[in-house]
Design goal:
There is one protein chain. 24% of the residues lie in helices and 29% in strands. The chain is α/β, with parallel strands linked by helices. The protein folds into 3 domains: 177 residues, Rossmann fold; 63 residues, Adenine nucleotide alpha hydrolases-like domains (SH3 type barrels, Roll), CATH 2.30.30.280; 80 residues, Translation factors (Elongation Factor Tu (Ef-tu), domain 3). Strands 12-15-14-13-16-17 form a 6-stranded antiparallel beta barrel. A 5-stranded parallel β-sheet has the order 3-2-1-4-7, sandwiched between helices. Helix 1 packs across helix 6. The protein is globular and about 70 Å long. It starts with a strand and ends with a strand. Pfam families: tRNA_Me_trans, tRNA_Me_trans_C, tRNA_Me_trans_M. This is tRNA-specific 2-thiouridylase MnmA. Its main location: cytoplasm.
Length: 358
């Protein structure tokens, strides 16, 4: 009987490398696939895709699996980057990694893998898939500090049915140890941070190449001008760094935070103090709700939700609106709820889905 073929998305990082290694050890026929999603300035100091490809090929060679590179830059630009720019222009803060997963890694990549003869695809995400009564559930990873189900909440039943996440039960420290034991050259490679196509570059400088600066006033909620901003697109709710407002005699001396955007008058609303009432919100509305199971849960239950990735689950109640909208009420006010970011819903360890914060 021929082995089941699994295509692994290999990024050159340690997580996807160990994913490929584990699947090979488990007896699968493994093919590595390196995705190139960005090529606008590939020779720049920030875009590491060339080095990443070299690392991925070296690992594939060590493990003894074939690897090919595939270019999804056009799909990425059409499906992810154009949305990203539209949202920023509208003053919102999108999460392109979530869209990249649903549109590129588990759509364009999945389609390509199927053409290569794969029955499943695998990635180095820290999450789990469970099949129950013919339905597929997305679960949190065992290592809570690395759990990435938040970024996968827009996957559907078909995508989950084809996906494997071998790292779901393994702590990150163990992943590096496995890589070291098997002489994978990237066992100590630093995890990549930052948005998938931007790399480690200064974010504002990157955005400035695509969006015009449109300076205006930074004002307190009372309307007092305390500084100048360079364009509302370049700031996000809760932002503290890069505001350039010093303390003054009339102010409390506490740090300033972005608390709102007045798009109509091109004004950035700033407040002092991390726990200013304008930064705390007990409720939010969400658009474009997506439920992994294909249908909304019974909302008479209470659930937990995250309004940003690095956050504890917060107890909440959900009221469903018409056409993929929902209203969330939290037991405790949430800090810096940001339009354009995702609110992701959990029932214990099960990720149910989520939507875009209005």
């Amino acid at each position: 009987m021929s082995k089941q073929c699994v295509v692994v998305g290999m990024s050159g990082g340690v997580d996807s490398s160990v994913t490929a290694l584990l699947l090979k050890q488990q007896g699968y026929e493994v093919i590595g696939l390196f995705m190139k999603n960005w090529e606008d300035d590939d020779d720049s100091e920030y875009c590491s895709s060339r080095q990443d490809l070299i690392d991925a090929v070296a690992v594939a060679d060590t493990i003894g699996i074939p690897i090919e590179a595939v270019n999804f830059a056009k799909e990425y630009k059409d499906r992810v980057f154009s949305y990203f720019l539209r949202e920023y222009e509208a003053g919102r803060t999108p999460n392109p990694d979530i869209l990249c997963n649903s549109e590129i890694k588990f759509k364009a990549f999945l389609d390509h893998a199927v053409r290569l003869g794969a029955t499943k695809i695998a990635t180095g995400h820290y999450a789990k898939v469970r099949e129950q009564d013919g339905a597929f559930q997305l679960l949190k990873a065992s290592d809570d500090s690395k759990d990435q189900s938040y970024f996968l909440h827009r996957l559907n039943q078909h995508q989950l049915s084809k996906s494997m996440f071998p790292l779901g039960d393994i702590p990150k420290s163990k992943v590096r140890e496995i890589a070291r034991q098997h002489n994978l050259s990237n066992y100590a490679k630093k995890d990549s941070t930052g948005i998938c196509f931007i790399g480690e570059r200064p974010f504002r400088e990157f955005l400035n190449r695509y969006l015009p600066t449109k300076p205006g006033d930074m004002v307190t909620p009372e309307g007092k001008v305390v500084g100048q901003h360079m364009g509302l697109s370049f700031y996000t709710y809760g932002q503290r760094q890069g505001l350039g407002i010093g303390g003054s005699r009339e102010t409390t001396g506490e740090p300033w935070f972005v608390a709102g955007k007045d798009m109509q008058h091109n004004r950035l609303i700033v407040v002092q103090g991390h726990d200013h009432p304008l930064l705390l919100n007990p409720q939010l509305d969400a658009l474009d709700m997506h439920w992994i199971s294909g249908h909304a849960p019974d909302t008479t239950h209470s659930f937990a939700a995250k309004t940003r990735y690095r956050q504890q689950d917060a107890a909440c109640h959900i009221a469903l609106g018409t056409v993929d909208t929902a209203h969330f009420t939290f037991d405790e006010a949430q800090w810096a709820v940001t339009p354009g970011q995702s609110v992701v819903v959990y029932d214990g360890e099960i990720c149910l889905g989520g939507g875009i914060i209005k």
